[in-house]
Design a protein that fits this description.
This protein has 563 residues and is mainly alpha-helical. It has helices at 5-14, 17-20, 38-56, 63-70, 83-89, 100-119, 129-154, 173-190, 206-223, 239-252, 270-273, 277-282, 317-321, 347-356, 361-366, 370-373, 411-414, 434-445, 449-457, 467-477, 484-491, 494-499, 522-529, 537-542; strands spanning 229-230, 236-237, 294-298, 367-369, 390-392, 400-402, 405-407, 429-433, 505-508, 511-514.
């Protein structure tokens, strides 16, 4: 059974590290008496991880959610009043502080990481140096991850690396990426070169740091058209160094591809599989959360509520948001359950994939064709917008039967999750998968070895390496995993790909229409913003003008007018 008791304990004890670090006290934690021992250090690192759950409590305003709905492979969806979903798809604003929860959660995590890095050497009683290095390496990894997500979402952001309150302007991108590179360099050096199974599930490893470094390198050098990644304090990370790290990750991490791509996703779980013809006919069996292909993931659990005692983000809220709207998500759409209807799949993805790779098992393993796969699908349910009849399968409520009663999630049986459609989702959010490591290695080395290893698992023949083959493979293999939008940005393909969404057939509230651009169209919005999103207006106001708004935002013309 999944548990997040460590995180829960930390949140209860630390309940906002801003307060416990303020003053000297003999009975409360502050920088004068915390951290002192190994338990303090472990609690401090757990507190950094807990901020990831805080962000997911408001899933619709996060890095992952924006990346999914803004990409060309999905539309906004939701109901007629879900303007936030529509706005993300159309690269337009819907409220002045829509990303404020994410901004604050990530900077809270950075503040906690800064504190850990600055105070770790105050700790005594280590069993050995490796124990200290593991925790310090995790702090560096998490700070790098948080700054990278902020940088991908907003472009330039304030760079704070000390545990002090500072009112800073946006740092140049090169400066922030140099700090990210430094933190990952430190993480690789500190985290042990041991099989991933030797590290507690959900914690950062040397291999996760190496893989994240490759992702950062590809985005920075691609989007900003540079040849290397600068490192704070001097030096650089070049392509050869990144490839060396990926070579080590591939050879020594213990990570590997699971047997069948479809076994990565919980629609193949044991409580659902026997009643789902697709899994039964193909002999599929879920490899489970934390399987050998998971390089780094956000973990979820069963101690969850709306903030009374726990945190909503202790359950996977993306799964809920991407479920089908009410009147669907019941027995007629088994095993796919109910949610808020965000992110209908662009019909063009299904069509182009079928034309390019007609026998690729990943297409039907990743996408629901509602008219052919579901017993009784209802168009226009609960005023569904931007509907195509296609839904993704990877992060979707998966139902199961118990003694003839349909349950909103298999996790009620598998993990003892609450019997509540909003709280029952324990599926890991996988941020780095081993297949991505192989594809990044192929892209960096311009060789087909990793690419063809991924294709072989999908029962496809080998291909000769080309950047176009690589782009297609990343689109097919990694669809709906929060990567496509940023791949388009770094390849400088975004303007064309996003513009191609216009004219695609959709239904709004059950009525036939076509997807159209707003604010001058997708291309105009992308070119105006560079693909980045608005800094929360509250943060600009609090900075007293030190922070400035990003290009393409802050005028009435940038506001989504609604369908």
């Amino acid at each position: 059974m999944k548990r997040i008791t460590a995180i829960t304990a930390c949140v209860m004890l630390l309940s906002g590290c801003e307060s416990f670090l303020d003053t000297t006290s003999y009975d409360k934690k502050n920088t004068g008496n915390f951290p002192m021992n190994v338990a303090d250090a472990e609690q401090m690192i757990t507190g950094i991880y807990s901020t990831m759950s805080r962000a997911i409590s408001d899933a619709a305003h996060t890095h992952f959610y924006a990346a999914e709905l803004a990409s060309d492979d999905r539309f906004g969806g939701g109901g007629e009043n879900d303007r936030d979903m529509h706005g993300l798809d159309h690269l337009m604003n819907t409220q002045p502080n829509r990303f404020l929860p994410f901004w604050r959660a990530r900077y809270q995590g950075i503040f906690r990481a800064n504190t850990a890095i600055a105070t770790m050497d105050n700790v005594t009683g280590w069993t050995n140096e490796a124990q200290r290095n593991q925790l310090m390496g995790e702090a560096h990894f998490l700070r790098a991850l948080f700054y990278f997500e902020l940088s991908q979402l907003f472009g330039e952001v304030p760079l704070v690396i000390v545990p002090e309150a500072e009112n800073l302007p946006k740092a140049p991108a090169a400066e922030t990426y140099a700090q990210i590179a430094y933190d990952l360099q430190q993480a690789v050096a500190l985290l042990p070169a041991v099989p991933y199974t030797s590290v507690a599930s959900g914690h950062a490893t040397r291999w996760a740091a190496q893989a994240l470094a490759a992702r950062v390198f590809l985005f920075y050098t691609g989007y900003y058209e540079q040849s290397s990644l600068p490192v704070a304090g001097g030096g650089e990370l070049n392509k050869a160094q990144i490839v060396t790290w990926l070579d080590e990750c591939i050879a020594s991490s213990g990570h590997d591809l699971v047997s069948d791509f479809r076994n990565l996703w919980p629609y193949t779980n044991e409580y659902t599989a026997e009643d789902y013809d697709y899994t039964d006919a193909n002999g599929l069996s879920w490899e489970g959360d934390g399987n050998k292909e998971t390089v780094f993931a956000v973990k979820f659990g069963t101690l969850v509520d709306w903030g009374d005692s726990y945190t909503l983000g202790y359950s996977n809220q993306y799964v809920l948001h991407f479920g089908m709207r009410s009147n669907n998500g019941q027995a007629g759409t088994f095993p796919f359950g109910a949610g808020w209807g965000a992110g209908p799949v662009n019909t063009s993805l299904w069509t182009q994939w079928r034309q390019a790779e007609p026998t690729d098992i990943r297409r039907t393993g990743s996408i629901i064709d509602a008219e052919n796969d579901l017993e009784n699908y209802l168009y226009g349910a609960d005023s569904q917008m931007e509907e195509t009849g296609f839904w993704q399968k990877k992060y979707m409520p998966v139902t199961a039967y118990r003694e003839g009663t349909l349950l909103p999630s298999y996790a009620i049986l598998a993990d003892g999750a609450p019997t509540d459609m909003q709280l029952a989702h324990t599926q890991d959010l996988v941020l780095i998968r081993f297949a991505d490591v192989l594809l990044m290695h192929s892209e960096l080395t311009e060789s087909a070895t990793g690419l063809n290893r991924v294709r072989t698992r999908a029962k496809l023949g080998n291909v000769t390496y080309s950047i176009e083959a690589l782009k297609r493979e990343r689109r097919w293999e990694l669809a709906f995993e929060g990567l496509r939008y940023f791949d388009l940005m770094r390849w400088h393909d975004a303007a064309n790909a996003l513009a191609a969404q216009e004219g695609v057939a959709i239904k709004n509230k059950g009525l036939d229409t076509q997807m159209r651009g707003f604010g001058g169209g997708y291309r105009a919005r992308y070119e105006a913003t560079g693909g980045f999103w608005p800094i929360p207006q509250n943060e600009i106001a609090l900075s007293d003008g030190v922070l400035t708004q990003n290009a393409g935002w802050g005028t009435p013309a940038d506001e989504f007018p609604g369908w």
